[in-house]
Amino acid sequence: MDIDPVRLESSLWVGKKRYRAALTGWHLNWTELDKKNRDKKTVSVPVSEVIGVEEGRVQVLPQMSVAEDTDREFTVFYVKRSSSGSPYGLLWRLGRTQFCCPSRDLRDQWMTQLRIALKTHSPSRPHRLLVFINPFGGKKQGRQIYHSLVAPLFELAGISSHVVVTERANQARDHILKKDLTGFDGVVCVGGDGIFSELLHGVIGRTQQEAGLSEHDPSITLQSCDLHIGIIPAGSTDCVCFATVGVNDPVTSALHIIIGDSQPLDVCSVHHCSSLVRYSVSLVGYGFYGDVLAESERHRWMGPLRYDYSGAMVYLSNRSYAGVIQYLPADSQLSSPRDNTRCLSGCSVCSKGTERLFPHSPGARSLYSSHFSQFSSDTEGEWVSVEGRFRAVSLTCMSSSCPRSPLGLSPSAHLADGTGDLIIVRDTHPLGFLTFLHRHTSTQDQFDLPFVDVHRVKAVRFSLPTGEEEDRDEERERVNDGGMTEEGKRPSRSGSHKHLVERGEERGQKDFLCGLCCSKAPTVSVWNCDGEILPHTEISCKVHGQLVRLYARGIENGSATPTRKCQDGHRNCKGRCVLNN
Fold first, then answer.
1. Known InterPro entries for this protein (predicted)?
2. Could you tell me the pTM of the whole model?
3. Which among 193, 238, 249, 511 is annotated as catalytic?
């Protein structure tokens, strides 16, 4: 057993109480002493979670201030955890303790040793960040959130940042693709899932360009990205932040960035024929989820309420769609979407995924090596085909949890195991589908329904049955004839999106909503890819294991809760059947 050597130990004062403080290789501890010099309570902070050390009595939030006549005092800032009021995550706050030393020389000695310890044990901390602020996302408070809550913390930690306030869509993506990023340790977005997607596409695209790889080749193994991405939540849903941190809180996310946490993340590439369409990390959804997004685009004036309204309207339309789904199953012996586990910080399934995806990797740095492929072949294993009519088809590389659905679309999905979960909801009666939707908001198993199938997969293909393709092409021709732009005669919106949106304008909203009594219900839906409408119906998806890395560590173990009732049906299971990784 390794012994944690003591680097510095002395008596210090905190207020009017005397403490014995000790700095070891990995921890800063201070123990309160009573009048007889006996130990009382002890506070222990990992050196890796110390944010900064400042001379004197210093306060950072809401603004920086330093008291006078404090030549024997120093202030330590560190991560302090607290309950979020929800069982699904922990809030991180800036802890602050002011120590008083018997002499100024001892004060200087403490500060020197603490700063040396920070450099020694926190080599992955960022020093320079490129920050993109979306001033229009969510409640339009991105700038205020960054300057009042995040910037002071970055300054305290000695992080310099270059801030870009975006003025148009895809500005952040284009900046990352085209500008010189020399000297930046990572990129950070202040906003919602939309601007995160821009950073995701920019970082992946730039990495493939520098590696000489074509993103449009669906059979290629993409190069893993070494430029980290940070998320400061300031959007409407912030699904990616919630699924990787456990809470949507700007200070918590900022502290994860400061200490250099690193969470690998699987990414799904979506192709049509031999062309890349988009990347996804949370949802590629057809049917219900695509229709809801398309309908909500017609009601943007309603704000976030448009999603509730559109969901209700699409549900009442009672639609299902014909399709052919092909998927490449993952190894069922490694994990399963029905195994009642949660992907938590230090997840053993994801750790085994690293060993499987990068079998010759001696350490974490090798995760960025291009010499190791994720799969020996994209066609490894046998493809499974399913044909029929479906209410919804979804592929997710994470739980896709959010405050409204704390367990998400697939509660046992993993962030970095190189697989995705394919959820197939077959055509069923309206009450059955409503039961499926309602279970996303509770702890009931949404997969325990006879018309729902879920599979852990490495790749998915979707196509239309013979006969449906002709109807699809006729509808798109009719829509695109009225939707061409002058430049290049290209549709201003995707053909499938226009099919749903513009058809409602031509026939009237009543036809769009009353699917049971329409003279001709739509034959195809659209794909919802992380909140964006895809321009194609027939697509292929491939999961790229640990393609990017976030400044996060996953949902912490202390906030774990049972995802489902015990498989044996015990009422008082209390999560004993849940694997707390």
1. ATP-NAD_kinase_N, CERK_C, CERK_PH, Diacylglycerol_kinase_cat_dom, Lipid_Phosphate_FormReg, NAD/diacylglycerol_kinase_sf
2. 0.85
3. 193
